[in-house]
Design brief:
Chain lengths: ~300, ~375
């Protein structure tokens, strides 16, 4: 900060030469903080700054090197609008007396911009707000069929962009999957995918996702089960043997245990890996540091 | 390492004394990358096998969670690096579906055409290496000759040969270069004869038949149970191709057939893939003749923010069904982006397929599954 301030003052001093104090320049150069003008300036600034704004653009161009040095650092954060002034960044600009002088402008202009930009943005967002794309499909024949056999298990039935999503009670996932595979009106004979999503803020943080496909009917359905951390969910390897590696991957990446899995162990990561990377709270940097500490005995 | 990997198996052996557990890979040329297979063998016969994977794990899914949708696309070039175009197509279309972006027909056609070129290139690489593994060196040279032509075409359109970053959300980066369709037509017209050439070398070759027939048999029921997709599934006679089941891009506009196998052995999978190349060529020719003119960009928003929701979209990659499951919380980057990797799931079948075969057949079976470790491990 020191250098730009100094430079700014140099420039200011230079600009002020014609008006008032050409002789005092050297002192200002040596110690910016101690000069009387600097200490006085903060309270005065807001008043002086505002008038300057109108004339700002041309004057800014006059100043040689120092001001450009100042501007690029702070500008990117906030859109520069020479409009309304606030005294927030006043200290660096100890502009003495001249109201119309350029030097005062660059610093105040930044804070002023901040407020209008923030107020402008919010109105845009509400306009964009999405209409809910999830539709209720509780009257869908598949859901009704499933509810006949498992009245308690279907917790929710929705569709998103025409993809059916059923939320199933985690305790009954195995019988539900068996039913969906074997029932003559469902015939979901293929497990397309099995994965999970982590929502750390939820009470049951994991959602295990089963993507089923019926070759005969050419339809898909997605089952979702909410599982809490440390809770086990029944493995569906007995229904589709494809679930074997998929469940191992979910175990590896999320740490969800599948009860009844024939060989539940890590698949992509080494056996001695610590943590489950696809959890949202898995800190990549911390992981790195821990590894270094453990294996290289380096502390930092 | 774990010592009880084979604990659950306990099958009777012919000669107990000769039982061995050996490593195949990860640095083994015929495992097509860094696949490691622990084989339990009795003499030459494989009793059991276990795949050890993850040597190429790069955490793509985690990386993508911290990237915007636009930035995420090139990461999928690097999952299945043999078929980058197909990977791009799956992700890009999934995001477009979530956004509700309509893509102009010209884009759809170009995408379809380039994806089919990529399928041919991928199958050529598979054919080359598969034949090389089994001992047919010549095919390798021929197949790479044609693959090179395709890569040149790719370079002309996308500017790169392997990790291409082919498509953008909402359209394409740039239009086809001048005279490109003529170059495509030239390749396409000659390609059929080249496929005949490969077939002349292999299809009725006595050694090839001996090495591939009745090797790694998977029945239709087993294939469905194991969620095999792509040629391994169709080689078992199950008619499932995403291009027909849920047409995407412009596939609904074209005539093409889905070749099916009968026995589900390595030879049938070979026939299926060879026929798929011919069918892909057919699609390409239709694309060339019917290529519509028009814009190459749809009306995608400048900042890509899919609505809160989740979508699963899959395409038929050269190796199987390639799916993307995106969960959006309304932000500029996906909350969760799951890749359904076809080769990861297909590779699961290896254990079932190699049991009872000779060690030399393991090489053939790994080849016939057409795995890419970049995608298996992601």
């Amino acid at each position: 900060m020191d250098k730009p301030e100094e430079q700014g003052k140099k420039a200011e001093a230079g600009a002020s030469q014609p008006g008032e104090k050409p002789k005092k320049q050297p002192r200002v150069w040596v110690k910016p903080g101690t000069t009387p003008s600097a200490s006085e300036s903060p309270p005065k600034e807001p008043d002086h700054v505002e008038p300057a704004k109108s004339t700002a653009p041309p004057e800014a161009g006059q100043q040689p090197t120092p001001v450009p040095g100042d501007k690029p650092k702070k500008q990117p954060k906030v859109w520069v609008k020479p409009g309304a002034a606030s005294a927030g960044t006043a200290p660096p600009a100890p502009t003495p007396v001249e109201p119309g002088q350029a030097p005062a402008q660059p610093p105040p202009s930044r804070p002023t911009a901040a407020t209008p930009a923030k107020t402008e943005a919010p109105p845009k967002r509400p306009a964009k707000e999405e209409t809910p794309l999830y539709l209720d499909i509780s009257q869908d024949p598949l859901v009704l069929r499933l509810k006949q056999s498992f009245p308690e298990s279907v917790l929710a039935a929705q569709s998103f962009l025409n993809q059916k999503i059923l939320t199933i009670d985690a305790d009954s996932i195995l019988p539900v999957c068996e039913f969906l595979r074997d029932d003559s009106e469902c015939e979901y004979d293929m497990l397309q995918d099995l994965t999970a999503v982590d929502y750390p803020e939820r009470e049951k943080r994991f959602v295990v996702v089963y993507q089923l496909y019926s070759l005969r009917r050419n339809v898909q359905v997605r089952l979702k089960c909410n599982v809490a951390d440390g809770e086990a969910i029944a493995s569906v390897t007995s229904v589709w043997s494809a679930a074997n590696w998929l469940e191992r991957e979910v175990f590896d990446m999320f740490g969800i245990t599948f009860s009844g899995h024939p060989d539940l162990k890590r698949i992509l990561l080494p056996e001695d890996w610590i943590g489950h990377p696809l959890r949202k709270d898995y800190d990549l940097r911390k992981q790195d540091e821990d590894w270094i500490r453990r294996h290289l005995q380096i502390r930092r | 390492m774990q010592e009880d990997i084979f604990g659950a198996i306990g099958e009777e052996t012919i000669l107990d004394a000769n039982q061995l557990t050996i490593n195949m890979g990860p640095q083994h040329p015929s495992t097509h990358g860094v696949l490691r297979v622990r084989l339990k063998i009795d003499g030459e016969r494989v009793i059991d096998a276990e795949c050890v994977i993850g040597y190429l794990h790069r955490g793509t899914e985690k990386i993508v969670e911290n990237r915007t949708y636009t930035m995420a696309v090139p990461y999928f070039d690097r999952t299945d690096y043999i078929a980058a175009v197909s990977n791009n197509l799956g992700f890009v279309e999934c995001v477009e579906k979530m956004l509700g972006v309509e893509v102009p027909p010209r884009v759809q056609y170009i995408r379809t055409m380039m994806t089919e070129f990529q399928r041919i290139a991928s199958h050529l690489l598979w054919l080359a290496t598969h034949a090389l593994d089994i001992g047919a060196m010549t095919v390798f040279l021929y197949a790479f000759r044609e693959r090179e032509e395709i890569l040149k075409l790719m370079e002309a359109v996308f500017g790169a040969r392997l990790t291409i970053h082919a498509f953008r959300i909402g359209g394409l980066w740039q239009d086809l270069p001048h005279g490109f369709l003529d170059a495509c037509r030239k390749f396409s017209d000659g390609f059929e004869a080249h496929v005949d050439e490969y077939e002349g070398l292999l299809t009725n070759n006595r050694i090839w038949l001996e090495r591939t027939k009745n090797i790694g048999v998977v029945s239709a029921e087993e294939a469905i149970d194991l969620s095999l997709t792509g040629p391994p599934l169709r080689g078992s006679g199950v008619n499932y191709d995403v291009r027909k089941a849920r047409p995407y891009a412009a596939y609904a506009d074209f005539d093409f057939d889905i070749p099916l196998g009968v026995h589900g052995d390595t030879y049938d999978r070979y026939l299926v893939r060879v026929e798929e190349m011919r069918q892909s060529n057919r699609i390409i020719q239709q694309c060339i003749t019917r290529m519509p003119s028009g814009s190459i960009r749809g009306k995608a928003p400048r900042v890509i923010k899919p609505p809160v929701g989740e979508y699963f979209h899959s395409v038929e990659g050269p190796k199987g069904e390639l799916g993307y499951y995106i969960v959006s919380e309304g932000g500029t980057s996906p909350y969760r982006c799951r890749i359904r990797p076809p080769t990861f799931i297909n590779l699961q079948a290896l254990r079932k397929m190699v049991k009872g075969h000779l060690v030399a057949d393991v090489v053939a079976i790994i080849g016939t599954l057409d795995i890419v470790l970049g995608e298996v491990d992601r």
